[in-house]
Amino acid sequence: MTNTARSASWPTQLLLGVRMALVGGRDCRLRTLLTAVGVGLGVTALLLAASMPAVRAHRDDRLRAQSGALISAPHADRSDHSLLMADISTSFHGRQVLGRAVHPEGPAAPVPPGLTSYPAPGTMAVSPALAELLRSPSGRLLRDRLPEPITGTVGPAGLVGPGDYAFFLGSDQLADSAQGVVRLDHFADQLPPKPTDPLLVLLTVAGVVILLCPVAVFLAAAVRFGGEARDRRLAALRLAGADRATTARIAAGESLLGSLLGLLVGAGCYLTARQLIERFTVAGLSVFRSDFYPQPVLAAVALLAVPLLAVLVTLLTMRRIAAEPLGVVRGARTRPRRVWWRIALPAAGVALLVGERDQLAVGFGTQGIAIVVTGLLLLLVGTTLLLPPLLDWAGRALRRVDGPPAWQLALARVRFSPETATRPVTGIVVTVAGAIALQSLLGAMATARSTVDARYTDQALITAHFTPGSGARATEYAGQVRGSAGVADVVGYTEFYGTSGDRAVTVWVADCPTLRRFAPITDCADGDVFTARSAAGPATIDPLTVAGAATPWQPPAARAAVTTLTVPDLPPGPPIRTGLLATPGAVPAALLQPQRAILALHTVPGQPDADELARTAVARLDRQAALYRPADPQPDQGFLSIRRALTAGTAAILALIGAGMLVGLLEQLREQRRTLAVLTAFGTRRRTLACSLLWQSGVPVLVGLALAAVSGIGLAAALLYLERLRPVVAWQDVLVLTGVGAAAVLATTLLSLPALWRRTNGGGLRHE
């Protein structure tokens, strides 16, 4: 046959394979359906990934509309189209509750995004998710903090996601001279630009590669469903005169039909997921349906890649199979697999990442991203290629282990059909290995990006910082909060800063009982001042220049000097800088009043929701007060948003792999129906077959999980070394993720038991 004739027969042979998949009987159609379902799950994941750029762009637009004007808008003059706004956000059980106090100053004042009109003074407009929370029993504590009647709803334009908690409070008590209150005449200002963070770029690139690689592996396995039955049909074609190349193309045509149908299934699943997306919130991340659509170029690439992958994988698989007229010869290996090149791939990935560390430290341009992607792919692909020889080794080692009939049946399947046993496990191996690496990287980054001093050890301490202008009311605030639910103890003080020459000086103002708690002071009266200094610090304080004060302040002569401090917002120990402890009578009222009052609260140990009760007590004094727990880390918000997205993606991929394993197991039971029926006819108990099914899935998964744990730790070490982070293995995450993989095997086995019972009846003995 000439080359022209061969090329002309390619489409014909592919179409013949498509026709055989359609008219080859119920088994062919069922195999095609299973392939379509498996491919459809993978296509759904690809379309979800292709939607992420649009989701991110829309979230940025919504963030700009929500907070841009408040953060970066220039000062506006009072007019009939101006308004006053203040940030009164809070938090509830770790979730942010975005809050804005608003007051229009004229009839033409622009309405904030998400509102159709301003709420009346003393009333609120809330987001649907917050309204549902406030109506529920679990939101009772938050309702105590937000007692105003609800008269409106915040629409999608004022929210980042449908699960966001947000409210607008109408207020006629705002003054443009108060701290934290801004006057606006428009919205949707640009947010302040942030410099590119190489570490966040690395995290994003690594997350995308690690999450998408299992999808590609899963798709490659899905197009090979029903391989044994297909091989028998190809043997019949060889008997009819087809050569090996023709049978390979016909097999590719069968897989092509399954992949094309899988595109339709995937598109349908994606559209269904898009309709339901607003109902789910994962790790605090929610998305509007209107923001969720795939980028055309990315979607086209994904949809074209799936049928090409189906044809390519089938052709590569057929190269190792000899479909002869009298049967299919897979050929037993007469020599062990060559392992060196399988080890070389992950080793090359590690070498690439480690060797280019100095170059990548300069910045992540196109070349840097290409290096990281290549290194990660080599590591992950190399990991999957190591699974077959490991499973061969495990099968030979376990051959010597005696066991019940269920064990022997499962081990025989693993030994004599290793490809079938390995295929559904590869997705779990890649997913778990990548998830371990991601969680280790996320944990190290969380530690590196959290601003916390290890010397803070008091977990019951919360500090409340009130708005400027409350400096003279610290003691009054402490008295009002003392005795509130959830509060065991509270002290109030005022803190401000000044300069004396070239030295920075901190001043703490409180009554004598409070000062005695801060330092070892014996004699104290209102009007006294005490110097807080290290052993080498100056004994006297020159006049202080305080920001906002018209003239410098000369503190009174110090009554005594102290060398240790226990101020709540300072780490325990000696003073880290020169300071003053002053009573209210020693500080001029004009200097004290504009400062910021601070409360140090100790929550009741062991009381449920003590933190939320303390937040409510403080919010009743000042809605703009900010609460901090000094012993808790303050994470980077940009990092947190990426972490939430990657956590949601990991959950979605694990769900995909679990569903794929179930489809693969059902397809495997369908092919073994005659064998199962014969075993049952000879007296084999169903319990034995069920246990055999569990072991048959469990042995490859246990080997795969061990490989995934080692590979994930190695990948994590390479990524941490790349960014010069402390190499810490997240052992808890390793155990959790491997446990999830093992649980997936148990769950899929239990879900497949009804199909197993149907395959063990006498009808399976019929054969034409």
Mean pLDDT: 77
Number of helices: 21
Largest sheet, spatial ordering of strands = 14-13-15-12-11-16-10-17
Shape: elongated
Strand fraction band?
Answer: 5-15%
Question: Helices and strands: which structural class?
Answer: alpha+beta
Secondary structure: elements and pairs:
Layout: H1 3-23, H2 26-72, E1 83-87, E2 90-92, E3 95-104, E4 124-126, H3 128-135, H4 140-145, E5 150-153, E6 165-170, E7 181-184, H5 198-222, H6 227-239, H7 244-276, H8 296-318, E8 322-324, E9 327-329, H9 340-355, H10 357-362, H11 366-398, H12 405-416, H13 418-448, E10 461-468, H14 474-481, E11 487-500, E12 503-509, H15 512-518, E13 529-532, E14 560-562, E15 579-582, H16 589-592, E16 596-603, H17 610-619, E17 626-628, H18 637-671, H19 673-681, H20 686-722, H21 731-759
Helix pairs in contact: 1-2, 1-7, 2-5, 2-7, 2-8, 2-18, 5-11, 5-13, 5-18, 6-7, 7-8, 9-11, 11-13, 11-20, 12-20, 13-18, 13-20, 13-21, 18-21, 20-21
